[in-house]
Amino acid sequence: MEILNKEKKEKSTKLIKFQLLRFARRRRILCKNGMYLAIDKNGVHGTKDPKNPYADLQVLSIGSDMLAFWGTKACLYLAVNAQTGQIYTTPDEGQHCVFLESITPDFYNFYESYRSVYDGQPQCLILNAQNKLIIADTGTIIEKNGQFIWELFDDAYEKYK
């Protein structure tokens, strides 16, 4: 009986993930410092190459101003450990994968860890000069390393011609 329940749970999890990905938006996330966010099997980093297959991300809408990032090639979510602030990748969905999106006065986006905001210590994503994605206090979003903008893929433009 336990094996059947486990199989049913796995099918349910796959179905939920499939349903969320159906409504995802395929994007590249460009940092104001010129680096693209890339998710691969070794973690998260920046790349200057817009054609890098690991920069192909799915942005999943979770709720109002809440989203998750799914690395299409790596099949992993971007996540943050709420206790340590460590950024990592995981195949499992959860609150650790949710980010709050806000917009700066010059129309760039910044992303705060969902858990950190509700724990009273808001922290945002920053792509530093060493091409590493880190989490830092929200006050640092003024820097260009914490500001992002979405880019559509070339094939997305073809749909609207």
TrEMBL record:
Coiled-coil segments, which residues?
none
- Write down a Pfam family by its short name: FGF
Per its UniProt entry, which superkingdom is the organism in?
Eukaryota
Matching entries from SMART domains are given as:
FGF
The UniProt similarity line reads: Belongs to the heparin-binding growth factors family.
Q: Could you tell me what this protein is called?
A: Fibroblast growth factor 6
* Organism per entry: Hydra vulgaris
Gene name linked to the record: LOC124815312
